[in-house]
Amino acid sequence: MISLYTDPRMIQEKDFPHEAPPHEKWRFLLNYALLAPSEYNVQPWLFQIHGKVVELYADADRHLSVVDSDQREMVIACSAAFLNLRIALRHFGYREETYVPSALGPPPHQLIAKIRMAEPFQCSEYDHLLFSAITRRTTNRHIFDERPIPAEILEQIEQRAAVGGCWVRSLQSDDLRTALEELIVEGDRQQWASPAFREELARWVRGRDAGFSDGLPAAARGKGSIAGTNNAFVVRTFDLWRAEAWKTRRLATGAPVLAVLGTISDTPGDWFAVGQTMERLLLYAYASGLQASFVNQPIELPGLRQRLNSIIHSTGYPQLILRVGYGPPASLTPRRTLADVLLEIQPEQEHGDFI
Ligand SMILES: Cc1cc2nc3c(=O)[nH]c(=O)nc-3n(C[C@H](O)[C@H](O)[C@H](O)COP(=O)(O)O)c2cc1C
């Protein structure tokens, strides 16, 4: 049986316990969920196993109350972890049933979704393809090559977003891109002007020492660092927006694709849809040899989010801004182990409402 203390980065497909009871299968599969992306790498998820069922909770202690005051990015991250779990379950030969509550539960552990292991089945080649990228996907903040992305890959990305209940606007014209870059720079300016923003970010900036299992390590921040520095004291104390904005603008300008992912409404259910769609798109991009990262500043500030809408002529709700392209590989970020995020393992209970 796999140890609860195994680093999820070390998970090996060949170790899947085919003959073990469901709760042991989940112990293995949950390691793939832990590799999902999350803002500042806070990993805001907790899990509970009940026999064939896994419950996913948001961990309110890891909620970023300044940069994500409405819990939107927290739900998106949890939902990305859920998608990884679904894909891993399918890859190892089981269909899933899911349940998503209509509203977020109360803190400290807010129920986000449940998944039940159903009957054995053969998943699609597409699911296998997505699975192959889970352990390799990483946020890549290097400058991308100018090499264009093949049209069929872009089409796939747009179609897959629509299937997931979201829309994608790819910003092609120079005018649109310039307008978006201005918003990103303005986002950096407003965020760094806030001591509360800097204080929160400083709590998640990691230095060069190894040994952290969460947060933003120096090596992962590439040439365009989110924090501009590895030092929490500096982040907390100085307004570094000019340096930060210069880097973010370079990242955005150089990306062959700059795309906004959005929804038609803005409820926790929409955020859940965004998380799964985002993760599907990221996994598909990585499986296709592409790299991606985020420049979400304008969406994290309500005034700029509205301005973004008018720039892209949308009446909906922008949720994420992604840059996609070809580039040098980026370092992998650390993860907490299952021992850190598993509330408990219990026998199966009666669960209704699955679909
Ligand atoms: C909802 C969400 C928002 C994010 N926003 C940003 C962002 O604005 N800028 C950025 O550089 N990275 C952003 N990230 C990426 C995280 O920093 C990254 O996922 C985390 O550090 C873990 O690293 P990994 O993606 O390489 O596993 C975001 C991730 C998520 C899920």
Automatic annotation (TrEMBL):
Gene3D superfamilies: NADH Oxidase. InterPro entries: Nitroreductase-like, Nitroreductase/BluB. One of its GO terms (molecular function) is oxidoreductase activity. SUPFAM superfamilies: FMN-dependent nitroreductase-like (SSF55469). NCBIfam families: Rv3131_FMN_oxido. This is Uncharacterized protein. It comes from Dictyobacter alpinus.
